[in-house]
């Protein structure tokens, strides 16, 4: 599914690495391994959602034979409708010819638009798997230019304020490497949309959270979120 042009491959392979970076395409602080994550979004044609998900479910084994599916969701609220969002885990770039020929190409007629971002987990978090089913919120923050060296500590304190005080559960924090730069995605888990709303309301009245968020807002350009519902075949439920 992912293809790098040969010139770009050579350029990345020859890049001098610093001790903190373990992958030739990473330009900011990241985990100490070569793992990265693709955020892929399909905007489906109206009325084609069920057909597309059934076809994906039947063929997902072709895809997971080559890379790990972290989670697969339909967007319930936030932005454009008829949208599915999925996260894939990789150790390297590769082209999956079987997947393209047997699923992607035959189903292109159901897709209106595609988007892809390459991200990595920030150094101070690991990917968590909730112990039970729930709903997910993907909060996306467009930060000011300068990277984590400028806003990383303040952003970390804001995230930890929500987690440590029990208002929500953190699944992962991802920094974009290819796509819109200076963008951070935070994936949260809650038992239900109602519990998410209640936790958000309480956190807004907690001076400890307010103080931490106020600091990070100084580096924020914009933000948006989506409420995500796991599909039947999603590893993250």
Automatic annotation (TrEMBL):
It comes from the Eukaryota. It holds the Pfam family NIPSNAP. Gene3D superfamilies: 3.30.70.100. This is NIPSNAP domain-containing protein. InterPro entries: Dimeric_a/b-barrel, NIPSNAP, NipSnap_domain. Belongs to the NipSnap family. GO terms for biological process: mitophagy. Residues 37-126, 136-235 form the NIPSNAP domain. GO terms for cellular component: mitochondrion.
